[in-house]
Structure formats: structure tokens, C-alpha cells
Amino acid sequence: MPILSQKLQPKNKKIATFIAFLLIPLSGLITDMYLPSMPHMAVELHQTENAIQLTLALFLISYGLAQFITGSLVDSYGRYRPTLIALAIFIISNFVIVLTKQIEVIYAMRIVQGITTGFIVVAKRAYFVDVYEGEERKKYLSSLSIVWSSAPVIAPFIGGYLQQYFNWQANFYVLAIYGIVVLVLEAIFSGETVPEYRPFRLPSMMKDYKTMLSTPLFLYGIFIIGLCYGTTMVFGLSGSFIIEHQFGYSPVVAGYAALMMGLAWMCGGLLGKALIQKPFIPKIRIANLLQLIFIAGMLLSAQWFNNIFTLIFFAFLIHVCVGFIFNNYFAYCLGRFPQMAGVASGLSGGANFIITSICSYTVVGVLHPQSQLGLSYGYLFIGLLAFLLLQFLVKPTLSTKTAMA
What we know:
Subcellular location: Membrane
Shape: globular
Strand content: under 5%
CATH class: Mainly Alpha
Keywords: Membrane, Transmembrane, Transmembrane helix, Transport
Main location: membrane
Helix content: over 70%
Radius of gyration: 20 Å
Structural class: mainly alpha
Protein name: Multidrug effflux MFS transporter
InterPro entries: MFS (IPR011701), MFS_dom (IPR020846), MFS_trans_sf (IPR036259)
Number of domains: 1
Low-confidence stretches: 397-405
């Protein structure tokens, strides 16, 4: 079909960029919109909390694993055609979820969504490396984290009201409609942007991965961004249960709480962009130390206070810190290997979500956070891992300008 092979027209560059920014937050919408509905899904589907939390973990794992291969595939077969096909499958999967009561079917569809979203987001991250160069490229790559963080801001806010006035299925209807709108826009205005097709060969892909993983700053960065996003997922997996079950608030309040965490992440991203010219490693280490200080404050205050206000206050500050670290390191990882943009995007994003899913689901599964204190211990475990990486493995030898070159 001609529509599947059309090139991006120069006149459509601005609107295609806008469409790409609409698709970048897709993974955040999929993970965050139904967070306020999790307790109600458990009741209606007659499942445990862990069983419902697994729907999120399965998406994260499949999304992460998919990106290890989708990066090479979009370098070999282009960005445009895989995006259209993946969007169509994603739309269908949402309708399957709303029509079933079987948790196993929901698990399967969440895996499908992880794989399709892997194609979409990897292709769109590579789009900015294809289309822009130099300072303009750095500006857009730094903006990716900020745009992506819009999803955790608006998604749980919308999801809280959808649950309050409709039901948990409404979240997936909205995702399907969103997918349909973006699919139509993508088909009309976007096009292929890959500058040079790289033959898909497993030995070549493994060679590319070896090159990237032999770069210490890149390798450690993958672990650090995974730990940062894992911090937000610990709140995502447990926050609504704490707010609705322990504190007795409605799904709307849980949605507002998740919105606050999204705003915190966005603030961290904006701060990271504002300080982009500052020395790279020192500013990240400072942010990590502040993160640990705020976690200590959250732990100490939990001895005397255990309410939603102290929970949100300290969690907000912690999420600002991890948002700052994530923005800086993810932009570096994406721009470090422009000649292998798709592979770099896939490896960075894939490893990030694998680490995120393992870290967050393990912390929640072991600690079962039911209060501010339990959540604090989860934050502390992840924060200390990041501290060990940043203090003892990452070498402070690069400025931001050198790192992003």
C-alpha cells in the first residue's frame, strides 16, 4: 500500500513533529490512566491486589523487552510503517480488554500493548534524531522527557474521574479513541524519516549493543534511569491502595495524588533542561543526595504523622529529584549514538523498563507498602542503589556539552 511507504514531506515536518510528541507519552498514558481504578478492578474481577498490579508489571516487562529488538527493526524497516501497524493492533487490544472479564485475557492484551507501544515509542524517539541535528536535536531530545512526563500528570487525573463516574473499562475506551485519532493523523501527515536502512542482522545488532554497553557512562546511565522511573512506579503500584484503602479517600483523590507525582516529574525535567549546560555528573549526584535527604525526612515524619499530606509532600520532592536525574541521563543515552538512533533508543528504553518493572514490582511485592513508612522504605532501597552507582562507578569526567555531543 502506498500509504505505508510514503516519505515525510518537508511541508509536514512541523505537524509530524507534533504527532510524534503526541505519541511519546503513550506508554505513560497506558501505565498511569488506570491507576485509580486498580482497587476497583480487584473487586470487580475478584482478584488480589498483586494480581491487578501484575497487569502493570507485564506491560512494563513486555514494553522493555520489545525495545531490545524494535530498535533494530525500525532501523531496518523504517519508522513509519511499523508505527501504523502497531497503532492498529494497540487499538484492537483496548477493545478486547473492555469486553472481557478474564484476567488471563487482560494479561495477554497488556503484553500485546507493551510490544506495540515498544514499536511506536522507539520509532518516534528515533524520529527526532533523523529529522533534527546539532543544537536543535539536543533541544528536542531534552524535551522528550518533559513531554513524556505530561502523561503521568494528566492520565491519573482523567482516570480518577473516569472511575468515579463510569468504571475501570472507561480508561481503555479512552486509550482506544486516542489511538484512533493519532493513527489517522499519522497516516495523513507523517511519513518515513529513516536516513539509511541498516540490514537486520543479528550479529550486527549484537555488535551495536556491544559498542554501546562498552561505554561506561551509557551503561550505568541505563541502570540509573531505570531506578529513577522505578521510583515513580513504586508509588504507582501502591499509592492508590494506600490512599483509597488506608486513608479512605475516593479514586478522584488518588488521581489527584498521582497527578501531583506527575507534576513533580515534570518539574524535575524542566529543571534538568534549564541546567543542561551545568557539569553532567556533579549535578546528578547532588540531585541523588537531595533525594536521599527527602527520603530520610519521609521516614522520620512517618513516626509521628501518617496522613495523605505528609505522604504527598515528601513523595513530591523525591519525584522532582528522580525526574531531574532521568531527564539528563535519558537525553544523553538517546543522543550518544546518532548513527544507530533506533538501536540506541530501543536499548535505552528497553533496559529502562526492564529495570523499572523488576525493581518496582520486587519492592512492592516484598515490602507490601500500606503506609507512608512502607513507601519510604521502598524509596530508600532504590535511592541507595542509585547512590552506589553514582558515587562509586560513574566517573565525573564529562561535562554535559561533551556528554551530549
